[in-house]
Amino acid sequence: MTRLLERLTPCGPVVDPKAAERAHETITRRVGEAAPSVEAAWPALAPVFAASPYLTGLARRDGKRLPLILEGDPEARLAQILAQAEAVAAEPDFETARRALRELKADLHLLTALCDLGGVWDLDAVTGALTRFADAVLHASLAQAVRLEVARGALTHVGEGPEGPAPGLFCIAMGKHGAFELNYSSDIDFSIFYAPEALPVADGVEPQGVAVRIANHLGRLLAERTADGYVFRIDLRLRPDPSSTPPAMPIDAALDYYESVGQNWERAAHIKARICAGDFARGQAFLAELQPFIWRKNLDFAAIADIHSIKRQIHAYKVDDRLTAKGADLKLGRGGIREIEFFVQTQQLILGGRHPDLRSPRTLEALAALSEAGHVTPEDRDYLIKAYRDLRALEHRAQMIADDQTHKLPESDADRKKVAALWGHAALRSFDAVVGNILKGVNRRYGALFKGEEELSSRFGSLVFTGVEDDPETLATLKRMGFSHPERVAATIRGWHHGHIAATRTERGRELFTRLAPRLLDAANATGAPDDAFNRFGDFFSSLSSGVQIQSLFLAQPRLFELIVEVMAFAPRLASTLARRPTALDALLDPAFFGPIEMPKDAPWDPADFEGAMDAARRLFRDQSFRIGVRVISGTAGARDAGAAFADLADLIVGGLAPAALAEVERLGGEFPGQVAVVALGKAGSREMTAKSDLDLMTLYASDDPAGMSGMSGIKGWSADSFYARFTQRLTSALSAPTGEGTLYEVDLKLRPSGTKGPVAVSYAAFEDYYEREAETWELQALTRARVIWASSPAFKARAEAAIAAALRRARDPRKTAVDVLEMRQLMEDERPGKGDWDLKLTPGGLVDIEFAAQFLQLVHAAGGGPLAQNTGEALAALGRAKLGDPAALTALESAWRLEQDLSQLLKVALEDGHDPDTEPKAFRALLARAGGVREFRSLKTKLAKAKTEARGAFEAVVKG
Fold first, then answer.
1. What integer pLDDT is reported at residue 307 of this predicted model?
2. What percent of the chain clears pLDDT 90, i.e. is strictly above it?
């Protein structure tokens, strides 16, 4: 065993003698009796501590740290640190474990730096030590995280043996961590996957919640800064679709993702993947299953071109164009480490599927293998190997100065001299020249890779928009793609390339658009309405104040981009919303976007600010209705979900604006001693709303005065009818008046007692009297859909609901009710006949027939305890269960209702009223067919006609008896 102090050699000159002297004094005093060891090693230590405040701090903070390192064998000391890190897994106290890991990281950092700078360890030994330590602390931290979940009762035990602390859960190291190539201040890239059925969760505990909390615990253990520092920054973003998935993913979901939408850049990322902690057997099996995805044996031209684009992407917009040392980005800049890595990885992806010997995760090993196989010349191999080692050494030294996760050489000469000294250079000019030559040499070789490759285009042909003149082949391609005016499209795109709009005004924005343009044109073609899709996208794109973030999002999430282009093609109203308010797109960025459609629990505004509440409500309406509409277009929300979501949105808005309207009336006229409720009728009441539904409302009020309505408001002395009429008017205005934020709903109060002839607000006594003595059958039909959506108190809400139920459950003559229903239906057919086969509301067998049938049966059976349900589908189902109608008729009605609701949701989102789907693009007709549960549009028309015929017959059978 050889002590480290006997093996150290000076790394370079002492760049700051005063700093070195200060370090010498404080460290000598701190180490006490071990000072002789420091003195013996000082010629090698002085250049280090003169340049690096961070390393000086590590030596000074703990008087035992430096002597232990200097007086021991470095390999033995490393083994001790790794063993101690592994032992933290058994530490019973979480905070003690956190402190221990941070102290061990400090030990490891000082040991590694001295061995690197002192010429004791080569690059492999340095990166290997850092990576082995990362593995050890990740294993220990995983055990600690599991221990926390056991303590809270979510897991039954901490696992032992090869299954790891959490059986079924494992961590996959990615990037430099996966390849044992960690740099000095590197973060660690890993992904967490788990088998839900294997996790030892307690009864009633969801595995996903446990796995996500474990991921969060790892962040606290490793990345959270405390008084003792941090261990590693962690990056979990290399998992599938990180913007919309939890930090820990089920294995099956991950495999499905890679098999269906995995990208070539993800294949490249997995070249370096390995299991580093947790259930090793499951991890190895997972990686084995990914091998066909990573290493494809057969690649067509498009796949190879896409792999090439990885190289061009990095070169195009993750670089610093300067090829000088000053401020050079050693990792991402031209001639940097990333160019060497992608020089290797792009060739591995293309060749490795058929040649397993080219699959090494380690950059230099893979480079040597490529050379051995004849794909890289020996001269380029030798140059790039040396350049890689030099750049990694420079990167380490830049990071050692202050433990910064930097990959850049300092801009200032004084700071750059420190890096130069740690690399053995006394003269800054010679240092800069050497670094500049390395960068130029790497960049020259990188630029020659895939040299002369054809630009990515479309399957329809060439797409070139450079220069100022139209490319003839591009115009032919655009014509083949279905564009009516190829010259106009080409001119528009060329203008965007030239920075004529804000989204492409920056160099980064233009370079992003270079990649986005072919995808936009292909996506527009796929809709079957390329002109509409492109033109509406142009309105949206031109309205952006900046295009970098949006374009990056579209490139990173191609399915989201395709969905947006579909919206542009098929939903003019939604497209217009996006063009006017691009922030509506934020709703789609929510990771839970494709999950259950849920509204906020409470309105996000202050009811005391009436005008502010109106604006906030319109912003909420815009964002949420856009979100629901896109879900309908995408086919990920059925009619029941969409109708309920639109109704929930209306409930939320009314429930937030009603208190604001009441507060505003009280501000003007004083408080009134009474109660009020808002009742939704029509589609809002039955929770069958569509994108274009209005709000049918009724306000119901009562004075607290048991003698009647003799109360007066506190300031103006308004009576109950006057006070609540003003409330109703304020609420109607809040819901319907346009503001700077747009509009909400059209509000209809005509379904209240006496319609337009009666007061706008209905007293409780008048409500009871009217529905007992005067209400016609059609008004009672409307009341079957009545739903109290807001009340000034829970007690009054219950009272209003009881009054509605009492009105509906009064005994009535079935025969007279049937005659009234049939007469009303005939009147509607005479005055408002259906407008064609796609009028799903008014044509025979349409929604009105179905609703009337359900309402009739509820009215005639309610007095006998029959079911009451506002929603038509639920009412039909309940009537069927109660055997209160012909089973075949009820089945026909319910089936037709579901079909027509599914189609109505999509039609209302996508088309203006009166548009004939027969004239819409083929792709939209396919969407309609999918919504209707058939493969072809022609089949949908047949299915719809049959359903309407059966529904009409069922309506007549039910009502006529």
1. 54
2. 65
Coil vs helix vs strand at 318? coil
**Helix/strand/coil for 170:** strand
What pLDDT, on a 0 to 100 scale, did the predictor assign at position 836? 86
By CB atoms closer than 10 A (0-12, 13-18, 19+), residue 430 is exposed
Mean pLDDT of 453-465: 63
Contact indicator for 422, 51 with CB cutoff of 8 Å: yes
Sort 435 into a burial class: Cβ within 10 Å, 0-12 / 13-18 / 19+: buried
Q: What stretch of H or E contains 275?
A: strand 274-278
| CA distances from residue 894 to 873, 885, 900, 932 in whole angstroms, order as listed | 6, 12, 10, 14
Beta-bridge partners for 679: 698, 788
Give the residue among 850, 818, 844, 816 at the shortest CA–CA distance from 832: 844
What is residue 463's predicted lDDT score, i.e. its pLDDT? 75
Q: How confident is the model at residue 261 (pLDDT cuts 50, 70, 90)?
A: low
Q: In this structure, what are the phi and psi dihedrals at residue 762, rounded to the nearest 5 degrees?
A: -110, 125
Residue 794 in tokens: 């829970």
- E strand or H helix that includes residue 249: strand 248-250
CA distances from residue 929 to 449, 564, 644 in whole angstroms, order as listed:
48, 20, 22
Element spanning 906, H or E: helix 887-910
Pick from 70, 176, 63, 76: which is nearest to 113 by CA?
A: 70
pLDDT at 313: 32
H/E run at residue 301: helix 301-317
CB 247 within 8 A of CB 212: yes
Q: How far apart are CA 603 and CA 316, in angstroms?
A: 45
- Contact between 456 and 462 under an 8 Å Cβ cutoff? The reply is no
CA distance 44 to 66: 13
Give the residue ranges of DSSP H helices in 452-547.
472-480, 486-497, 507-527, 530-543
What totals of helices (H) and strands (E) does the chain contain, helices first? 38, 10
Could you tell me the two tokens for 643?
């109708």
Could you tell me how many residues make up the chain?
Answer: 961
**pTM value?**
0.54
- For residue 226, the SS3 value is strand
Buried b (16+ CB within 10 A) or exposed e, 436-475: bebbebbbebbeebbeeeeebbbebeebbbeeeebbeebb
**Degrees (nearest 5) of the Cα angle 33, 38, 43?**
160
Residues 6+ positions from 428 with CB-CB distance below 8 Å: 413, 416, 417, 420
- CB 632 within 8 Å of CB 906: yes
Residue with tokens 């304020």: 730
Strands 169-173 and 274-278: antiparallel
Asked if 59 and 65 count as a contact pair (C-beta separation under 8 A), the reply is: yes
CB 519 within 8 A of CB 558: yes
Report yes or no: 550 and 587 within 8 Å, Cβ to Cβ.
no
- Give me the torsion for CA of 721, 727, 729, 733, rounded to 10°: 180
Which amino acid is it at 223? Answer: A
> Taking the CB of residue 372, how many other CB atoms lie within 10 A of it?
13
Split at pLDDT 50, 70, 90, the class of 275 is very high
Contact yes or no for 368/385 (Cβ under 8 A): yes
Extract the tokens encoding 688: 């069958």
Token digits for 843? 């044509």
